[in-house]
Amino acid sequence: MLEVSNLACSRGDHRLFSGLNFQLHLGQIMQVQGVNGSGKTSLLRSLCGFLMPDEGDIVWRGESIRELDEEYYAELLYLGHLNAIKDELSALENLLISAGLSGIELEEKEAVSALRRMGLRGREMLPTKVLSQGQRRRVALARLLVSDAKLWILDEPLTALDVGAVELIQELIAEHLARQGMVIFTTHQPLHVPGMEMRTLSLS
Taking the complete model, does pTM exceed 0.85, yes or no? Predict the structure, then answer.
């Protein structure tokens, strides 16, 4: 489904990684590991098509993502380590807008339901600037509940989350994998998905 061949990426004159090869199939999850500066975020951004690698190719369903454009992005959900939400907008408005930008026709009641499952009941209409860092992260992660994307690429999804929220994200990932979804992620916190074999990719 997703195949990476001979991938190389640099930052300035520094080579982050090279000769990277892996495949990810339906229902699989993979953690990208490495010390700070090893290229984890650069790899994820390359997989999303946001960053052009120095060498190699990224293939989705047998075709290079360079040729697929919107067809690929329609099946991809990327959540970066930054929340990408607007402080002056409410949690509800942020979720509706992000869904719209992704081409998702989301009803307001569906958005409210997603935010409530994320533990934001009673805070749906508050400006996100008044929310805690953990609550703001929950707003961003609510996109997981309203997306039909097959491939989730998550950069530090557990940042600022409490124990209950971490358990919820693990539950959402398990549900996604059970639907034959795919997940690639980085994290500095333990993430466990019961019953699933966790693949790892280490960048040195």
Answer: yes
